[in-house]
Amino acid sequence: MSEAHPRAVLMPAEVRAVILDHVRAGWPAEACGLLSGRDRPDGTVRVEAAHPTANVDTSGRPDRFEVDPAARIALTRALRGGPCRIVGHFHSHPGSDPVPSETDRRAAYEPDLVWLIIGLRGGDDPAPDLTAWAVVGPAGPEGAVGFRPVVLRVEGPI
Ligand SMILES: [Zn+2]
Description:
7-stranded mixed barrel
């Protein structure tokens, strides 16, 4: 994947709703999950489904997340042979802006995964900010060089 990939991320409003339900339910802890979807010929990625997972981070810190590896393996298997792949993941920032943290940067090493970050100002935040980020490689032992913001387009009623 080139560093210009993807040009934009498209997401149906129903998928956004699944993500928001999960991160609101998890507040004040970070909540996370996986995104499956398709690479489109125009260089965009369309998210077809969100798959909430457990946050299995064991650091005890409120600003850490780790997608359950077992859930990722199961989803990879479920998608095998179909048109979709794991295109990225999402996690919440329960008390900070939806921009990648230093911890996120160190954890970013897969250039073909989009990062979706949801900034929550409370468990009932009526209008959380969702942002999408592409990993800018190459990643070294300390993680990626950084992130590049990607246009996120929600399709349908919000
Ligand atoms: Zn983060």
